[in-house]
Amino acid sequence: MGAMQLVQGQREELLQALCCGGSAEGLESVIDLLLAWDLLTWEDYQGLCAPVQTLSSRARGLLDLVCIKGESACALLLAACSRVFPEARKVVLSFGGCKPPQEEQEPHPATATQALRCHRSLLVRHLRGGITAALKALLESGVFTAYDCDEVQLLLYTPSQQARRLLDLVQSKGESAAAILLQHTQTSEENPTTPENEEHPAECLLYQKKLKSSLSAQSHFVSTYGGTGNLSLDDIYTEGLLEVAQGSGEAQQPLGLEDILGHAGTLNEEADTVLVSGEAGSGKSTLLQRLLQLWSRDTALQDYLFLFSFSCRRLSAEEREVSLRDLLFMHCCWPDRGQDLIFQYILDHPHKVLFTFDGVDEFRLGFSDERRHCCPTQCAPVSVLLFNLLQGSLMKGVRKVATSRPVAVTPVLKRYLRKEVSLQGFSTEGIDFFVRKHHSDPAVANRVLESLQSNMALFGLCHIPVFCWIVSQCSRELLGGGTSPQTITDIYLMVLQHFFQCRSSRRLSPGLGWVQESVGAVIRLGRVALGGLRSSCFMFSEVELQRCGVTEEDICTGFLIHTKDHSSSECKHYEFLHVTMQCFFAALFIVLNDNIGRSTIQDLFYPQYWQDSVLAKVCLGPCLSAGSQKRDPDGGAQEAERPNLEITATFVSGLLSQRHRELLLQACPAPTLDRKCTQVVRALSKGMQKHFKSIPQPIEGEKKSMHAMPEFIWLIKCIYEMQEISVAKDALARLEVEHLKLTYCNIGPVECTALAYVLQHLRTSVGLQLDYNFVGDVGVEQLLPCLEICHSIYLRNNNISDEGIRKLIDKGIQCENLQKIALFNNKLTDACTKHFAELLKRKQHFLSLRLGNNYITAVGAEQLADGLRSNRSLQFLGLWGNKVRDRGAKALAQALQESPSLVWLSLVDNGIGSDGACALAELIRSSKTLEDMWLTKNCITREGVEYLLQALEKNTSVKSIWLRGNELSPEEVEEVTQRESRVVF
């Protein structure tokens, strides 16, 4: 296929790649190369860089222009794209073997201006880290004015764009300016600066010392509930699972704390903001606290001279307009002297500064990029400063780390992210480590762990750090011999029991007496909690608490903790210990308050009605002052708080379970509970039916499938919290699909537990697709109860190891319906293949096994071959991206020669050479069913290809053998293609 055909045929994919992440860097890097190769004239370049054009318009203009210039121009475009695009983008594109001009073919630049153009790409990379020095040299030589320097250094430009702006301006000034810039570049290459030896002003070092002292004090303790004191972060901190976020194009890989700011997972080199996303309770705030602690102790992040930490929850309370200087010095740490010098140093050395923003999802206004603010000394609303810092218009070059729940990360915000990493809570080992750190008595720790391991639902919940912490705190109740917690609601009720029984009269019998004594405090705290959620308020003044009837005794319970609010120094401010605790008290208020109207629960379960609901006007209005209820006129705050209202609805469902009826009857009349329970069940049923009605009719020949959205997972979790089998059965009564797709839904072990509880009641078998989630080994175990109804299970990219597979296969062998398993891109090694071999031996109706991109070697392939020899049904076998090499290929080929069913075999990128190809040729020759074999990206030479060609002559039923990326010359590829059309390169 010609270059022009490739460009035109892949136009949409090329446009997406050129505009990746909303950054112009990819497009501009391609243009740099095309200028250097003389494909684009200076007039072409200026037309493509017109400031009024959008990024997508510029990309389309480039593709149109190149196609007009013809076949050779298209070939150069593909060569430039191949050089610039990251590997994740290149996988889905074909470049047709197009290569850049050979160096010997490129004319030697005769002038300095020609050199700027010929070496443009290299100069951009060199200059973007030394713009200031280059401008100084040009200014001192007299060819640049101060105005020219200001034009280049506009803060809205990225460092690479500043470098291009500099080159363009130098070229316009002629040969002398170009010669000076080239001389400066050569001199700086010969005498590179050494930032390590850079001397910082004494005032800056004194300020750094004070800043570290302040952050050390702030990060030393972790608050605990119930007013029981504080725990040292050192004594309790346990690392969670931190990975490159899904969709980055990179394989999942574990990251350490300092890797957050490393290169792994980078999508946009020009962006400054790294996002750490995770569900409520996954440990995001504690992770940032640990980062602050390590920096303050000089044990991490020492490339940064200053670290400024912000809580978005507290920034929301700032009602004044402030400048960046105010934000840094008043909200973080005030310098004792040299404020002007320190602030100027920060402006001049952005690469030495790190900002952290905890809880972007808790900021009252949703992220917006509508108002640009570039001036660090000009005052603006805090929201404007925050958004412009994150997107890079303000303080470009300063690295920022922000945390948020995934649901609040909008496409607008994603455009400005350097990368996203995902915090997935504790691994199995992490749970063990945390519990043992929490309990100094090894005997108690062992008993707690034994209790968790005997209750897999609870063990799955402890994957979330905040639940693991609560369970550890409430070990007395957990080990007391009562009913073991199954749901999140159970855990939070255990918290209440633990606290109130500790403070109840000793004459009360252990059990239910604490409810009657504490219901008043629960109602008062619940009123505050619910009012705050609806208005996106997480901090409350003493006046607001008094307005809701909260007493000093209620505050002393410890569920509200004192916080410093920078907007007022006249009264104390409080916040709930954790946002999930605020949601729980809000749910208690909804369930126990007999004055809540009939429409309240409906409003809670139907998000589209939240803004103008009775819930807002009647229940919440009296709770908070007008100042606390300020909202974005465009509704930004509503979207920011929706996750909290969903958590609240989940707790409401759990509280109305029959399991807790006896407990709640002490505080609420039976008719009220019955009415609200009926409403919740009806709301859940309607919510599920809404999803089912949206399922499109299948195309002829395809299976009927449903691609569920995150709201579907929320409804499933609500049903699980109720623990009513009849509700689960009724919810799925009308679901008739053959394939249930739940990809990219942030599903972890907690969600797996709920899914298994509900889906096991499906009436017909289904294919369950959970690709690109965070299931892990713990989640696999939670899914086992619903495996019986699955004819297929897809778990690609889920951080699953051999231990999870062992449990999956042990259960799968017993499941009559199960016929397909896909586990691409996990952590599987040779240790798992013996389990798959056993499955193949025992399930003679099994159809498909896909284990691509794992860590299986020839040893694993030989073990798998043992099972393949006995299987008479397998049609699809995928081992792409492993390392079976020739030895493994031989074992697989020999085992499959007698297969009466094999249709498709993939051994892409397995290090297979000609010896392996010879064995696979024998398989081709003997198979009566094989249609496609994929051998792309191996080490097969022309000799090995000859074996395959000879086998194809004997087997006319094979449709294709894919061989692109092997060790053949272009001439050999052409020859083979002419000889056999079924060989595809």
TrEMBL record:
Residues 272-406 form the NACHT domain. It is found in: Basolateral cell membrane; Cell membrane; Cytoplasm. GO terms for biological process: innate immune response; regulation of apoptotic process. Residues 1-80, 108-183 form the CARD domain. GO terms for molecular function: ATP binding. SMART domains: LRR_RI (SM00368). Its main location: membrane. It comes from the Eukaryota. It is a lipid-anchor. Keywords: ATP-binding, Cell membrane, Cytoplasm, Immunity, Innate immunity, Leucine-rich repeat, Lipoprotein, Membrane, Nucleotide-binding, Palmitate, Repeat, Ubl conjugation. Gene3D superfamilies: Death Domain, Fas, P-loop containing nucleotide triphosphate hydrolases, Ribonuclease Inhibitor. Pfam families: CARD, LRR_6, NACHT, NLRC4_HD2, WHD_NOD2. GO terms for cellular component: basolateral plasma membrane; cytoplasm. InterPro entries: CARD (IPR001315), DEATH-like_dom_sf (IPR011029), Leu-rich_rpt (IPR001611), LRR_dom_sf (IPR032675), NACHT_NTPase (IPR007111), NLR (IPR051261), NLRP_HD2 (IPR041267), NOD1/2_WH (IPR041075). Signal peptide: none annotated. Belongs to the NOD1-NOD2 family. PANTHER family: NACHT, LRR AND CARD DOMAINS-CONTAINING. This is Nucleotide-binding oligomerization domain-containing protein 2. It comes from Anguilla anguilla (European freshwater eel). The lineage of its organism: Eukaryota, Metazoa, Chordata, Craniata, Vertebrata.
